[in-house]
Design goal:
Blueprint (H helix, E strand, L loop, with lengths): L5 E2 L3 E2 L19 E5 L4 E6 L5 H12 L10 E3 L3 E4 L27 E4 L12 E4 L12 E7 L1 H4 L20 E4 L8 H5 L12
Antiparallel strand pairs: 1-2, 3-4, 3-10, 4-9, 5-6, 6-8, 7-8, 7-9
Length: 203
C-alpha cells in the first residue's frame, strides 16, 4: 500500500567525504544523527523517550547504510519533506512494520516523524521533516526526532507538486550516520583492496 500522509483532510504528503560535527555536550552522541545533504549537514536529535522502538529501528537502518542515496520523493512546499523509500515511489520500505508510538509531543518546524498508511501500525522506514508547525499531525504520527541544526539545508531540498508533493528530480540523502559511530568510508574506498608492498631483498 502506498504510504501517505494526511494533510488538511486527505491530501497526499508524502560522492564526498563526511566531516566531523561536534554536538552540544548535553547531547547523547548515540542519539544524534548526522545527515549529509547536498548543501550541508543536518543534525537530528533522536527521542527514544518518545518512541524507543522507532529510534531503535532507525539506528539499525542507519548503521546498515539503508538511507544513503535515498531520495526525498515527496516535498510539499512549506509543509514537509518526506524520504525513506529506496524506490522513490512512496510504496517502498525496509519490510518491517512498526507499532505506533504516538505521544503528546507537538509537530513543530524541524520535527521528524514517521510516515504511514491508513493503519496506525504501518510505519516502516519512511519519515518526514516538518517545515512548519503542523498540529493536524499531533497524536496521529510517531515523532522520533527533531532537527537541532541545519534546517536551512532542509529548506533547500528540491520541492515537488504543491498538492501531492511529488518531486520529478528529487534531492537525495548523501549519507547518514550516528554521531557516536566513526564515519563510514565511501563505498569505493571501502572496496579498494590493500596492496602490500613486497619486502626489499638484500644481495
Amino acid at each position: 500500500m502506498r504510504l501517505v500522509l494526511v494533510l488538511l483532510g486527505f491530501i497526499l504528503l508524502t560522492p564526498f567525504s563526511v566531516a566531523q560535527v561536534s554536538v552540544s555536550p548535553d547531547e547523547d552522541p548515540d542519539n544524534v544523527l548526522i545527515m549529509q545533504l547536498k548543501d550541508g549537514q543536518v543534525v537530528i536529535r533522536m527521542r527514544p523517550d518518545l518512541a524507543p522502538n522507532h529510534v531503535k529501528r532507525i539506528k539499525e537502518l542507519v548503521r546498515q547504510g539503508f538511507y544513503d542515496g535515498v531520495p526525498f520523493h515527496r516535498v510539499v512546499p512549506g509543509a514537509l519533506a518526506q524520504t525513506g523509500d529506496p524506490t522513490g515511489t512512496g510504496a517502498g520500505g525496509s519490510g518491517q512494520k512498526l507499532k505506533a508510538e504516538f505521544s503528546a509531543e507537538p509537530h513543530m518546524r524541524g520535527t521528524v516523524s514517521m510516515a504511514r498508511a491508513d493503519d496506525p501500525d504501518s510505519a516502516d522506514s519512511q519519515w518526514f521533516i516538518c517545515l512548519k508547525p503542523s498540529p493536524d499531525f499531533n497524536r496521529r504520527y510517531t515523532i522520533w526526532g527533531k532537527v537541532i541544526r541545519g534546517m536551512e539545508f532542509v529548506s533547500h531540498i528540491e520541492t515537488g507538486d504543491p498538492d501531492s508533493g511529488h518531486v520529478i528530480n528529487p534531492d537525495r540523502i548523501i549519507s547518514m550516520r550516528i554521531e557516536s559511530d566513526p564515519p563510514r568510508l565511501p563505498p569505493e574506498a571501502a572496496a579498494k583492496p590493500q596492496v602490500k608492498k613486497p619486502k626489499a631483498t638484500s644481495h
